[in-house]
Write a structure and sequence with these properties.
This protein is of the alpha/beta class. It is built from eight helices and 29 strands. Helices cover 18% and strands 35% of the residues. The protein binds alpha-D-galactopyranuronic acid. Alpha-D-galactopyranuronic acid binds next to loops. It comes from Candidatus Eisenbergiella pullistercoris.
Length: 560
């Protein structure tokens, strides 16, 4: 399953995943392991490759003719795509989608090879040994699409409130794969109503972006957490003779996010965030969670009284975002980076890999109404001049790609951050009573008062993007010592009560929803080789803190 709805009615598509592919490790020494490997999936799910880190080869035969587009939703973490022995695409980053267009394939059977590498090293600036696992494999779905001579390669939908009335605008990318010019037209439909018709003229091989003006939609029903109203937006490309050539369908919503003073407003109403940070991680599936497991995670978060999820620390599977759109779960989505020092940020690949991630994230996820904010560079060097330059460039890149959403980053630089003038929302990760003993209310007030001084963050919305404590599932003790479920529950109660009563604070994300596996170099500071700050453990079994959080979140006001 690739998306929660059909993305084409005219273009013929099929899923290449949902099957077993030929697989072989490519070890530096020793014999390769050969298997039939489930795709999508992580090779750590198989007993023979449970701990393998390195290079591997996947192979799948497919029959096709003509122009073909292969879409990969995620390969962890570096991919080289070969068709019939020829490299057609290279891609870095486990968490962003990419595609390859193959022109005029001869009819018959073809061989698709995916060379995957999940090793760490100087070439990889973002996938580093970290407080979460970097799995290996084709971890998200793969689709094959048969393209005509021209196709719709992308579409961004923007809704806006003007004088209290909804307006819609779209930008649609089209491409001519042929060596002769193309004349035609493009129809945009919202559910079954025509929104706009645009003439299309493409020179041989040309790519173009067609834009509609702002179109009034006074009857549109707004998307909100309480009423997540969605519309199907179809872009249909017609030839000169009026015959349909290609189409692209996405799901969109009418909603507006902006900041005003210290508030984040959704459709003009103040948001009060009660959320969870979540890693894509599960003992049975690795980072390759099936749809039903994603649904279950969202059901538990809803039961806990949450209205938001933070996709820490990378762009998520689009199917999960589809579910957030459908269920009204607000999303903080961020690019892929966690805890990188200035030295890490000076890796010559860092800037390019971050920028690629941002472009691919916003390119693919722009239309999700549930995403209300973009984040970057979790807990990196936002206290140094070099770091500031990286933050500035990436935040500006986001603004050039999306003018409609606020931007932020989760800082851990206690009273030393120098980047708050660059963002729309100031965000902090704090761990009072876990990594230090200062009472939560004292620590938070001190931090908040400092932000209101000359930091560039004064008067802006303020979010706590992480707070939490470790609790090992099943470890119960009347002494309520650290790592016990009791200590975790009590600590969270104190932390949340301080945060939710802090003046000027727009809300909180708990670190974290579920326990997750970490990389080997973190084992000495992570009991059970897991980050144990989940409110549920890795199998989603509730800890004592579940009831505590549910009580606090259900009691706190939703949107005011
Ligand atoms: C950080 C970080 C998280 C996690 C957390 C923790 O704030 O952003 O990824 O590592 O700390 O558990 O210490």
């Amino acid at each position: 399953m690739i998306r929660a709805f059909d993305t084409h009615k005219i273009r013929r598509t099929r899923e290449l995943s949902g099957s077993l592919w030929e697989f072989s490790t490519l070890p530096q020494e020793g014999e390769p392991v050969r298997l039939k490997m489930p795709v999508p999936g992580c090779w750590q799910n198989e007993p023979e490759t449970l701990t393998y880190r390195g290079r591997a080869r996947y192979e799948k035969k497919f029959a096709a003719a003509g122009n073909v587009r292969l879409e990969f939703k995620g390969v962890s973490h570096t991919a080289q795509i070969r068709v019939d022995g020829e490299t057609v695409k290279e891609h870095y980053n486990a968490y962003t989608p990419f595609s390859a267009v193959l022109k005029k394939l001869p009819a018959g059977e073809h061989t698709l090879e995916v060379l995957v590498d999940n090793s760490f090293g100087p070439d990889s600036a973002l996938h580093v040994p970290n407080d979460y696992q970097t799995y290996g494999g084709i971890t998200r779905p793969v689709a094959l699409e048969e393209l005509a001579g021209q196709y719709v390669s992308g579409m961004h939908f923007t809704s806006a409130l003007r004088d209290g009335k909804w307006h819609a605008a779209a930008e649609v990318s089209v491409e001519n794969l042929e060596e002769i010019p193309f004349e035609g037209s493009l129809e945009l439909r919202l559910d079954d109503q025509t929104l706009a018709c645009l003439p299309v003229h493409l020179e041989a091989g040309e790519k173009a972006v067609l834009a509609t003006p702002q179109i009034p939609r006074p009857d549109a029903e707004a998307w909100s957490p309480e009423n997540p109203q969605l519309y199907l937006l179809s872009a249909i490309l017609y030839g000169k003779d009026g015959g349909a050539v290609d189409d692209l369908i996405d799901r969109v919503g009418f909603r507006e996010v902006r900041t005003e003073g210290k508030d984040i407003l959704l459709n003009g109403r103040k948001l009060s965030i009660r959320g969870f940070c979540r890693h894509e991680d599960h003992p049975q599936f690795g980072c390759s969670l099936p749809w039903s497991a994603m649904c279950r995670d969202l059901s538990l978060m809803r039961d806990l009284g949450a209205n938001s999820v933070r996709t820490s620390h990378y762009p998520n599977d689009e199917l999960f975002l589809d579910l957030c759109d459908e269920t009204g779960m607000l999303v903080w989505e961020e690019n892929h980076a966690r805890g990188l020092s200035e030295e890490d940020m000076r890796n010559p690949n860092f800037e390019r890999q971050c920028e690629d991630c941002i472009r691919e994230m916003i390119g693919a996820h722009y239309n999700h109404p549930s995403i209300y904010i973009w984040g970057i560079l979790n807990e990196c060097a936002s206290h140094t001049q070099y770091g500031r330059e990286c933050y500035r460039k990436q935040l500006e890149l986001i603004r050039s790609l999306d003018q409609t959403r606020p931007r932020s980053f989760a800082s851990c630089q206690f009273k030393t951050d120098i980047c708050f003038d660059l963002v729309d929302v100031v965000s902090y990760n704090i761990y009072p009573l876990w990594y230090h003993d200062t009472p939560a209310d004292v620590y938070l007030k001190d931090l908040y008062d400092w932000v209101q001084k000359d930091t560039g963050g004064s008067g802006k919305p303020f979010l706590i993007t992480e707070v939490g404590a470790g609790g090992i599932y099943g470890y119960r003790t009347p002494e309520k010592v650290k790592w016990s479920e009791e200590y975790q529950a009590e600590t969270l109660e104190k932390q949340l009560s301080a945060i939710l009563s802090q003046e000027g604070c727009s809300g909180v994300y708990i670190w974290q929803f579920c326990d997750c596996r970490v990389c080997d170099s973190w084992f000495s500071v992570r009991p059970r080789t897991m980050n144990n700050k989940g409110i549920v453990d890795e199998y989603r079994r509730p800890k004592l803190a579940y009831a505590t959080v549910k009580k606090v979140f259900s009691g706190a006001g939703k949107e005011e």
